Amino acid sequence: MTERILENRLKNMLQHLQATGLYRKRHDFFHKKILNFSSNDYLSLADDSRLKKAYQVGYERHPVGSGGSPLVSGYHPAHRQLECAFAEALDADDCLYFSSGYAANLSLMGLISRLNATALIDKQSHASIYDGATLAKGRFRRYHHCDINDLREKLIDLDTSIIVTESVFSMSGQVAPLFEINRLCAGKEVELFVDEAHAFGVMGPEGLGGAKAVGINPCLRVIPFGKAFAGSGAIIAGRKEWIDALLQTARSYIYSTAPSPALAYGLLKTLEIIRSAEERREKLKALIAYFRAEIAKSAYSWRDSNTAIQQLQIGCPHRAQSIFEALLQQAIVCFPMRQPTENKQETGLRVILNYHHEPEDIERLFQCIQTA
User: Fold this and answer.
1) What is the pLDDT of residues 225-276, one digit of tens each?
2) What is the pLDDT of residues 178-192, one digit of tens each?
3) Is 16 a catalytic residue?
4) Which of 62, 76, 79, 198 is catalytic?
């Protein structure tokens, strides 16, 4: 009886998702001739021969697996070399190498809760940040997206707080006012944590992120490797006492097997390539400018973004899915962003530009959207 009840509930849940246009599927687009506008590989390094060679060397020199937690037997010299390279590049005291950006953000929010501080979070920050706050049962308040005045007002009645934001927001592509936020922290019991997932590699000198772009050095920065790095894992960089506190308290770090030392070596070499990839960043900037010029001629509603992420607002999950499927028929991949990732009003398509795109690719995308 219990099994049938649960099965019926599962069927009802899945049917509801299908009826509301929120049902999701996985797709295998690898090795297919497609025009991909949904990849976070901003610098088009995923298939780069230099990275492949670096990972090959990593597997020749180092173990495939770490064999344990970083605090037991899994901490390898390759991990330390990666952490030190990031600390030097970012003018940070120290770093911790995590298995994923999600795990890193869970740990950050857990630390805030443990310190009995209040997190002030931009409303459009990544789900992992909110999940971390919820799981840690910490105190947090949301402020209006990129609204420095609302943030200032919410800080007035808080004694100890930590502002948490992305530097470039993953759905809209909009850039946080990091310089102004950092000024709010000055002279107060307020610290700043910045998730650099969509900025590192493409913004700032040598692609070192949004904080570097505006000349600030926040308390802690998260740099996930699944975007411009074309890899996986994440680094948290920051002040010594904060990194040490994470080492003592971060459950997703303490109770996870350390990442592969061979992968750490590949990431170390990727950092070197990214820092010298100015030509790729310049081309990406030119593509963004070209895309924005096409937006000016479009009949659709687009978010205002100066980054590689451009958001087409449709407001209907069924219509967003329909356009996605029409584009797929033309061998173009551009995924719909729907609830709960986005609210209903901002449901639509997220277009992501990368180094391998050309102006004619952008023109083709706009033409196909127009006729979808």
Assistant:
1) 999 999 999 999 999 999 999 999 999 999 999 999 999 999 999 999 999 9
2) 999 999 998 788 999
3) no
4) 198
Catalytic residue chosen out of the listed positions 62, 76, 227, 356: 227
- The CATH class that applies to domain 49-275 reads alpha beta
Residues written for the chain: 372
Residue 172: active-site member: no
Active site residue 188: no
Catalytic one of 40, 105, 113, 354? 40
- Region at 79 (left for phi over 0; alpha for psi -120 to 50; beta for the rest): alpha
Q: What's the pLDDT score for residue 19? A: 82
Quote the DSSP letter at residue 121.
Answer: E
End-to-end CA gap in the chain: 47
Does 198 participate in catalysis according to the annotation?
yes
| Domain ranges for the chain | 23-43+277-371, 49-275
The active-site residue out of 195, 196, 342, 346 is 195
- Rounded Cα–Cα distance for residues 265 and 123 (Å): 36
- Told to judge if 241 belongs to the known catalytic residues of this protein, a careful annotator would answer no
Contact 203, 42 (CB under 8 A): no
Q: Which residues of 250-289 are buried (b: 16+ CB within 10 A; e: fewer)?
A: bebbeebebbbbbbbbbbbbbbebbeebeebbebbeebbe
Write phi, then psi, for 169 (nearest 5 degrees).
-80, 135
Residues facing 201 on adjacent strands: none
**Of 41, 94, 122, 166, which one is the catalytic site residue?**
166
CATH topology of domain 23-43+277-371: Aspartate Aminotransferase, domain 1 (3.90.1150)
Q: Do the domains at 23-43+277-371 and 49-275 have one common CATH topology?
A: no
153 catalytic? Reply is no
294 classed as catalytic: no
210 Cβ contact partners less than 8 Å away, ≥ 6 residues apart: 167, 168, 175, 176, 178, 194, 196, 199, 203, 204
Report d(CA 10, CA 3) in Å as an integer: 11
Active-site residue, from 126, 154, 212, 269: 126
Sheet of 348-352, strand order? 301-302, 309-313, 348-352, 336-337
> pTM for this structure?
0.90
